[in-house]
Amino acid sequence: MKRLLILSIFFTFTVSSAFCELSTESKSLLEDMRNNQTAVKTANKTKIKNNVEKDISTTKKAVQKKEATNPNETSNKKEQQKNNIDTLNQTNRRDVISLKNGDRISGILIDMFNETARIKAYGNDSISIPVSKIASINTVNKYQIVLDEGSILEGFFEGVTNSQDVIITTEVGPVNAKASQIISVDNLKAVAEKLAKAKEANRFGLDKVWSGKASFGLVERAGNTNERYINMDFEATRKTEKDKLFINAHLNQSAEEGTDTDNYITGGARLDLLISKSLFYFVMARAEKDDEKDLEMRTDLGIGAGHIFYDNSKKHLDMALGFGYEREDYEGESSNGESELMYSLNYKKQINKGLSFSERFMIYPTIDDLGDYKMESNAKLHYNISSDFGLDFGFLYRYETDPRPGDKKNDSTLTTALTKSF
Predict the structure, then answer these.
(1) CB-based contact 130:138 (threshold 8 Å)
(2) Cα–Cα separations (whole angstroms), residue 408 to 89, 253, 405
(3) What are the extents of the domains in the chain?
(4) CA–CA separation, 208 vs 393, rounded Å?
(5) pLDDT band at residue 372 using 50, 70 and 90 as cut-offs
(6) What is the DSSP annotation of 308-373?
């Protein structure tokens, strides 16, 4: 029995050892199979990569050989691609600006000023490009180009010369204009559409176009001193091909402890009847009231002629000379009147997209004594906050050589006001 037990243990040990050796050999065999599969996959990838690179290299060589043997065909294809782009731009009514570095920008030319072109590209983004960087400009839209000496051209942009002359094709033929002389560029179709909408929207149903702005400023102080300062300004212009009507009104008012300390009101109108693009006749009327000086009313009526030096979206300048009659009514005094000369200057300058400067200057010397005169200067710096609202910084200066006893010769007023354009 003892011998049988020993034989059983020996048999069990032998079988277990055999199974262990078989398991170790199986694992080794499986590992070798995995390694062989990985090696095959790597070899296949390398072979595929080499074949692809060989095919690419062969294709490149074939293309280069074809371009070398048929250069005209390659050039024709590139030219055809360019023509396709130009045709697309023509179809979509888009202007094209080509830069000296090879870039091309298509869109709608919206302005040219200070030797810089602005184009509205895709996405309604406005891009400013110095003319010195432009190789050519080709427009499919017709434009009105205003030069600094006052001449106006209508036509299409066709290119830019090496000396930065802009080539404009007009009805009478091509014209070269210095980029530095161009002060405004307007799309004729857009201008016509804008005028048509303005006429249609005119509340009076008249074939007239109105524009203008109203401003309001207020300063209120309370505490040790109760003070209030108000300034209001209004101006409107109706402009047609035959005439121009300008209306304005201004109010300065201040009060301290409930008592008015200043109440100055002035307003007027001038109608210009155009003889030509640069000459006009005018009739005018003006009224003024100043409680601080006991001036109940001062009126001026006049006629004359004037000259327009510039009149475009960037700059306006006109001067006028005429004859008039002035009547003054002071509190507690009899009325008096006298004949006078009238000289006026109206100037406006668009400094940049959001900033402009304007000034109205008037001087009225009496005919009997030219050294006896009244003068007024109304200067404003306007800043656009948006298309409708802005800020006005104004300076009003008045001077009189022979004031009433007790009155000073000069008055000056600084104002800041919020404006609404229409």
Answers:
(1) no
(2) 66, 19, 8
(3) 92-190, 202-421
(4) 30
(5) very high
(6) EEEESSSEEEEEEEEEEEEEEEETTS--EEEEEEEEEEEEEEE-SSSEEEEEEEEEEEBSS-TTSE
Structure tokens at 108: 């709608």
**pTM to 2 decimal places:** 0.57
- Nearest residue to 251 via CA among 235, 236, 267: 267
Phi, psi angle pair for 318, to nearest 5°: -140, 150
Q: What is each CA distance from 44 to 39, 41, 53, 242, in whole angstroms?
A: 9, 5, 14, 87
Q: Give the number of other CB atoms < 10 A from CB of residue 300.
A: 20
Question: Euclidean distance between the first and final Cα of the chain, in Å?
Answer: 125
Q: How far apart are CA 367 and CA 309, in angstroms?
A: 27
Contact by Cβ (8 Å): 134, 112: no
- Asked if residues 287 and 299 have their Cβ atoms less than 8 Å apart, the reply is yes
Q: Kindly tell me the burial class for residue 421, based on how many C-beta atoms sit within 10 Å of its own C-beta (0-12, 13-18, 19 or more).
A: middle
Task: Supply the pLDDT for residue 375.
Answer: 94
3-state secondary structure of 45: helix
DSSP string, 84-110: HHHHHHHHTT-EEEEETTS-EEEEEEE
**261-318 tens-digit pLDDT:** 778 899 999 999 999 989 999 999 999 999 888 889 999 999 999 999 988 777 899 9
CA distance 269 to 55: 84
- Count of residues making up the chain: 422
Q: Domain 202-421: give its CATH architecture.
A: Beta Barrel (2.40)
**One-letter amino acid identity for 326?**
E
For residue 363 the two structure tokens come to 């001087």
Query: In which residue are the tokens 């009238």 written?
Result: 342
CA 336/CA 325 separation, integer angstroms = 11
| Torsion, Cα of 167, 170, 174, 177 (10° steps) | -40
409 closest CA partner among 380, 373, 382 = 373
